[in-house]
Amino acid sequence: MIPPFILTPISDAPVVSQTPVSGGSINECFHVKLWDGQAFFLKRNTLQEFPGMFDTEKKGLEMLAQSGAPTPHVLAVWEDATHQFLLQEFLEPHPSTPSQWESAGEHLARQHRTSSSSFGLDHTNYMGSLMQRNNFCDSFQEFFIVYRLGDQIRIARDSNLLESSHVKAFERLFLRLEELIPTEKPALIHGDLWTGNVHETPTGIYFIDPSVAFNHRETDLAMTFLFNPLPEAFYQSYDASFPLEKKWRERVPIFNLYPLLIHVNLFGQTYLPAIQSTLKRF
What fold is seen in the domain 98-281? Predict the structure, then answer.
């Protein structure tokens, strides 16, 4: 249990309950209620294992919010001798309406119009529990090959999760990326926009737990298909607000090679057949 006195920088009201809630496999998460009726969402993890994780999450959420995306407001990030903490507003979960999904598509389109002169980011952040290296690149292909697929291929190969035949298949794909992926300006992407990070609430849909960078905008759209796609109203609204290049759905498997490699490195070879299928297809 988290000691109740930790919230005194935010409020002097006593903590009346700290209930564990779902928040993924990395963090301990709590719904914290104060005597004065305020409620917060608190995350904690070990400082030694994930240094700077919550600092970069706060930066990412602030970048998305500045672009017009709906994100939870972060109240504080701090650490003690062994742990780090992130405190943000509590957003009550609630099923969304079709109009709210339409608004979410418009919000993502607006976010993606925030651009940069280069692909990349000026600091390292996290994708899940893995450190995500960033640097600025002149092209999407360079950024995708070096700082996304390349890093994860190296980890998987060193862990004997990929064979040399897989690496060669990736290298063949690299040579084709310029013809396969349409040219776009760098877009501020969420970076980890699977369905679990699209949070439905009574007041609308929020984007949570980002892994931001300036990247190809189809990266975010593809990620929403990784497990179960979002309602069709979301995609139609996005495309009406910021039209996508033709056949974007056919390119989804290429962009999802990155999160699939992340899953291979975190959870094992269960996700390898999906990677092999994409490499054979392209």
Answer: Aminoglycoside 3'-phosphotransferase; Chain: A, domain 2 (3.90.1200)
